[in-house]
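hey so u asked for the seq, here:
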Amino acid sequence: MPDIATDITRAAKDLASVAKDATYVVIGAGVLGIQRLQVERHQLTKLLSGTNPGLGDRVTAVRSDLAGTIQDVDAKVDQLMDRVEDMIERVEGVLAPFEERLPTQARDLAKQAHLQAKEARTQLRTLRPTAAA
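ran it, structure tokens below
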């Protein structure tokens, strides 16, 4: 009959050997997994670094186009404001003779309206955002 103590010792040694082998397998799988992740990271870095210079050039081009467009819009707004200013002056010039015929109180109100309109136009010009701002 085999000795129980010997069987337990042999079973414990076998169990320790299996646990040791399992530990080596787990550690090896972990090392392989980390290496695989490093390879994937390296490939992704190469892929992204290859596209970044083109992206930077495109962003620079878009910024340049946008700055030019803003300057064009500012110029158009200035032209439009000048035209509106001219039209207002013409209308005021046509209405001026009629204002002379108005009663004193109405004439004073018309002059106040002209002053407020001029002040409003001046404020609009100073508040308009520009590319330089």
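Residues 4-100 form the longest helix (97 residues). DSSP finds two helices and no strands in the chain.
lmk if thats what u needed
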